[in-house]
Amino acid sequence: MIRNPDENKKRLLICLERHLGIVSYACEEAKVSRKTFYQYCKEDVDFKETVEEINELALDLAESQLLKKIKEGSEKSIHFYLRYRARKRGYSDSVDITSDGEKIVSEIKINIVQPNKDNE
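RE: above sequence
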């Protein structure tokens, strides 16, 4: 049965929101292939924008749950938050002692030398 693309898109967006932006679950529930989903994203700007909004809502939910755990005193959640959101205050897994925060660009050359059969 060939379905109307507009109906597919509507169903996909409903399922995508229900599954917090997880494409494979949404496609399975909507009975639409992932290939079709990504084709819709590529060809339909409004569809793609709505997908991005749903993904932002999922991130907002995750952030709110993280903040809830922080308020409850979860040390792992506090450490995670500080490691990624408070780097300028020194909370990080690494320390930059050479570049004062500037990107260091260096070039490394590797010469691969093949042994000469005469010298073996």
